[in-house]
Structure formats: structure tokens, C-alpha cells
Design brief:
Layout (H helix, E strand, L loop, with lengths): L1 E6 L9 E5 L9 H10 L1 H8 L15 E5 L7 E5 L11 H18 L4 E4 L11 H19 L3 E6 L2 H14 L1
Parallel strand pairs: 1-6, 2-4, 2-5, 5-6
Antiparallel strand pairs: 3-4
Helix pairs in contact: 3-4, 4-5
The structure holds ligand AR6.
Ligand AR6 binds next to α1.
């Protein structure tokens, strides 16, 4: 089992898959989603558009994940997952966030990926406090890694401050 915290732009990482903190349309947005679409090129949007809607306008409900190729990225795949919008923490946010990590790791296992990089899902526009998101992310990943085995997991933070929060949660988890 290997979980490592780094500070980097996720779009430049040479891993089997990078994870996109998307919205349920899967048709792009700001933050890391916008950066991934820009770096992967227009074929990524075409691939996302081709994913079946589960209801009008929703290709990926909150807490679920979908996989596409990485196109112009160094990464072979993008796994798109939709984190919860923070509404104070008592509206199922922790279990939805845990589900994002679990469902993404399930797809990683299905595709026999050896390395994967996650951004801090929900910790930007969606407003999830990083100090509360980090322990949820780590607990879910640790659970998944019991069955997923030898996958190298990178938690790719966009600032040293965010990396420090995740590092503290990793240390606290022992
Ligand atoms: N590499 C790594 N991390 C990044 C990068 C990057 N290039 N760019 C931003 N981050 P956010 P969310 C960090 O807002 O909160 C989009 O519009 C960022 O600093 O991207 O899940 C989607 O379409 C923050 O720590 O995702 C949705 O509508 C983290 O990534 C909505 O935002 C997540 O911030 C999703 O919101």
C-alpha cells in the first residue's frame, strides 16, 4: 500500500490515471476540471459527451465515477468523479466524498492501473473544508487499498498549505 502527498499541477503527472473533480454534467468547468480539459484537448469533451446520461443532464451522479482516455495528457486515463457540494457537513457529504474515492479505486482496479493521482476533491469551488475532507479521503483510500493491492496513490495538492493539511491527516491516521 502506498499513499503519497505531493504539491503539483495534476495535469502534468505521468501516472496511469489522473482523477478529475468534475460536476455531474461531465462537460467541463473551472478549477482542476477546466485544467484537465485544456491539457487533454477537445477529444476529452467528446468522450465525456458520449457517456450515457442517467437522467437529463446527469452523466455522473455525486459520489460515482466514470472513466475516459487521457488523450493529450501523459496519463492514459482520466477518472471523473463528482464530489459533494459542502452544505455544512450534515447532508451526507462525508459518505458521498468517501464514495468518490471508493468508486474511483474500483475503476482503477477494473482497469488494472498501477498508479493514480487524486486532486483534493470538493475542496475548491464545492467548499468542503480541507481539514474535514482529508481524513475522509485517507480513510476511504486505505479501505480500498486493502482490496486493490499494489496501486501507487498520489494525493496531488495544488498548494503547500493543502498538502500540509493532507500530510497531517496521513500522519494522524498512523
Ligand atoms: N492540479 C491539482 N489541483 C488543482 C488544479 C490542478 N491543475 N487546479 C485546481 N486544483 P475544484 P471541486 C485544486 O474547484 O471543489 C469545477 O468547476 C484546487 O485548488 O477544482 O470538487 C467542476 O466542474 C482545489 O484544492 O473542484 C465542478 O463544477 C481542488 O483542486 C466544481 O468545480 C479541487 O477544486 C468541482 O468543485
Amino acid at each position: 500500500m502506498s499513499i503519497q502527498i505531493i504539491t503539483a499541477d495534476i495535469t502534468g503527472l505521468r501516472v496511469d490515471a489522473i482523477v478529475n473533480a468534475a460536476n455531474s454534467t461531465l462537460l467541463g468547468g473551472g478549477g482542476v476540471d477546466g485544467a484537465i480539459h485544456r491539457a487533454a484537448g477537445p477529444r476529452l469533451l467528446e468522450a465525456c459527451r458520449a457517456i450515457a446520461e442517467v437522467r437529463p443532464g446527469v452523466r455522473c451522479p455525486t459520489g460515482e465515477a466514470r472513466i475516459t482516455p487521457g488523450f493529450d495528457l501523459e496519463a492514459c486515463y482520466v477518472i471523473h468523479t463528482v464530489g459533494p457540494v459542502w452544505h455544512g457537513g450534515h447532508h451526507g457529504e462525508p459518505s458521498q466524498l468517501a464514495s468518490c474515492y471508493r468508486e474511483t479505486m474500483r475503476l482503477a482496479r477494473e482497469h488494472e492501473l498501477a498508479s493514480i493521482a487524486f486532486p483534493a476533491i470538493s475542496c475548491g469551488v464545492y467548499g468542503y473544508p480541507p481539514e474535514q475532507a482529508a481524513p475522509v479521503a485517507l480513510a476511504s483510500l486505505r479501505e480500498s487499498l486493502v482490496t486493490t493491492g499494489n496501486v501507487r496513490v498520489l494525493l496531488c495538492c495544488f498548494s503547500d498549505a493543502m498538502a500540509a493539511v493532507y500530510q497531517a491527516a496521513l500522519s494522524a491516521a498512523g
